[in-house]
Amino acid sequence: MSSWLRPPGITLRLLLIAIVPAALMFVAVTATLYKMALDDARREMLQQGRLIASALAHSSRYGLVSGNLPSLRASLQPLLQEESGIVCIAILGESQQTLLQTCSRAADAPDTQSIEAPIQLERLPELESLVDGSEENGAAVPSLPPERGSSSGLRTIGHVRVTMSIQPQLQARMTSMAGATGLVLMAAIASGIVGLVLSRRLGRTLHDILLSLRGIRRGEFDVRFKTIEAGELGELQRTIQQMATSLDEARHGLESQVEQRTRELKDAVDRVRKADAEKRRLIAHSNAMVETDRKRVAVEIHDHLGASLISVRLEASALLARAQAAGDDDGARMARRISDTVQSLYQSTRNIVRSLRPELIDTLGLQGAIEDMVRHLDDLQSGCRFAFRCPSDIPAIPSDTSIAVYRVIQEACTNIAKHAQATQAIITLDVLNDQQLLRITIKDNGCGFDPRTLSTPGLGLIGMSERAAAVAGQLSVTSRPGLGTTITLGVPLPAQSAASTGP
What we know:
By secondary structure, this protein is of the alpha+beta class.
């Protein structure tokens, strides 16, 4: 925003409050004095004009009657020179015609005013006959007709018009007004100075109050004023100090509550972490025990049941050979049926052993076991093709980690076969970060789902998450309806993975 458009600050406003009233007072008083001087000058001009007009009307009546206009003009010149306020003197006849006019300047100036006074004579028969005789002699004097409707003994024979100027009286008033204006100006200046001093003091107080409020906004509640003013400002300062003290106490109380709640929350988080760690430890222990039991059962089935089935198959083969040698077709057919049944049982036993404990993990490692599982799934699932990719060499991986990864991939592939309605699934195994992270990606092109609408995860997802957590892994599931599902598992590898159990 431009500096001209910014609202004025407190200091400028206080300066205006101090200066503007004094200036307005000076202008108002000066205007009042000028108007009073103008009115007095006009009133004095009118009084003087009336007095001069009356005097001239009295002194010029006999000159007007006698018709001695040059003498009358000569008597008017000194008066015109002595009185600077007189602009023009005119002697008018009874019918307002101008008989004589003497002017010092133009009589129609804007600062002039005309005053008229009648020239009157007493009614004397001798004067009337004199006037009548003068008319007969051809003298240029005004006639004296009888005054109609007059109840007095005077008759008007003409008028005196005196044009006065207000300038002399106004100049005299201005001279006296200058002193008064000076006093008013000094009073206005003194008032302004007092206002400036008070506004400066008020501005400092308001500035301190504003700084204190800004400090409170920043969280600084230690408010101290150098001086406490009287009146409303002092009450405002004390109120701000009390408010700052209350806010400080409230802040300390809130900080104490926050610290207490933080400690409680930290303790709760620690308990949750301990419980989670204990849960993971129990899950890992449980998984280890399950895998141990599975391994024991698989070994028992493989070593005992598998061996027994092989022995039975050998006996059936021997019976088949003897029956064929003896020409016993029924015996041969029964021996062949026993041999086929034993072979089917033996294959089922191999499948059970593979599901309980993939023996290839112990012989070929994780990569070989996954390849065998994917090949087996691809043979069993006619509607979905499974593919396995391993773009980099996989180092030796600990047995517990291999089993957990294998089970996660197994569960994911089972879910794809059951629910995804996919036609293709790709399992990718790779090592990142300089052989510090094992990343497994299972991606399908199935129907997918919206994870936000999945209020309760299935047991398969829960089992995969728990197995990943047991080996400190991170499992993420990304899916969108109609765009398939991607499951990513990241498992950290120990620094010396080659020294771990592996092929």
